[in-house]
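for the recovery benchmark. tokens below, seq after
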């Protein structure tokens, strides 16, 4: 849940010069509705795409709300890829589909992406025409904030939820490069999910386990700016709760509460 009366960080001006930002090929901030890693381009398709909401948060995506970008960084992806999305899972629509990825808007094709069947989360990666997915083992409840991360190492596909690796599947080769779109909540001619997206990131490399945990705890670390309030996410009873610290301290605590 989003804490009341607390402002999210302002829309970022640029990516931070940090190791975690190495290899970023997409960095979408739903407060500003821009993909910073793709030079602040606007959505090429934006059916029902929400305007910034209260305190800069985008309003919920629904079965009529989706957006896509032409993915001009596809050629930078080889035999590794990582995809991350932080969002509030509200209500399901009964459909199965990608929530974020390089996928076909009006067909069943895909190169890679995060997927939900309204029960579990998956990371799909297609190499040489063969698609493989790794699945989460625990499903997120409605209204819960979820940090989903999929990693393809060149040897395996991994699915992480809330900073924990929950599933793996063997895969090898270079990621396919079908001419699709970087899509948010649309695949195979449908928008499938009611979700409130916060941030989405993609890298052309496999995040390390330490990076996977770190980005799940605090995805806003990729943005530059000392005037921001950064949310940290702590693990409590199997889920994440946001709390707030000032970046001037240059450290983000972690605890159970």
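predicted aa per position
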């Amino acid at each position: 849940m989003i804490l009341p009366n607390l402002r999210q960080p302002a829309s970022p001006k640029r990516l931070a010069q940090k190791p975690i930002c190495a290899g970023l090929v997409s960095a979408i901030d739903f407060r500003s509705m821009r993909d910073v890693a793709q030079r602040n381009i606007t959505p090429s398709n934006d059916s029902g795409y929400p305007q910034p909401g209260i305190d800069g948060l985008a309003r919920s995506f629904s079965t009529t709300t989706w957006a896509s970008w032409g993915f001009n960084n596809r050629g930078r992806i080889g035999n590794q890829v990582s995809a991350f999305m932080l969002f509030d899972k509200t209500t399901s629509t009964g459909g199965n589909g990608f929530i974020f990825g390089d996928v076909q808007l009006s067909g069943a094709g895909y190169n890679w992406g995060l997927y939900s069947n309204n029960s579990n989360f998956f990371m799909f990666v297609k190499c040489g025409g063969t698609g493989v997915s790794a699945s989460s083992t625990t499903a997120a409840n409605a209204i819960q904030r979820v940090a989903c991360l999929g990693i393809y190492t060149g040897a395996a596909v991994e699915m992480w939820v809330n900073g924990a690796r929950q599933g793996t599947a063997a895969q090898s080769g270079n990621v396919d490069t079908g001419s699709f779109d970087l899509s948010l909540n649309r695949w195979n001619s449908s928008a499938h999910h009611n979700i409130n997206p916060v941030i989405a990131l993609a890298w052309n490399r496999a995040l390390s386990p330490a990076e996977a945990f770190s980005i799940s705890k605090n995805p806003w670390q990729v943005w530059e700016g000392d005037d921001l309030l950064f949310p940290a996410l702590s693990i409590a009873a199997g889920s994440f709760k946001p709390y707030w610290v000032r970046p001037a301290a240059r450290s983000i605590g972690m605890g159970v509460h």
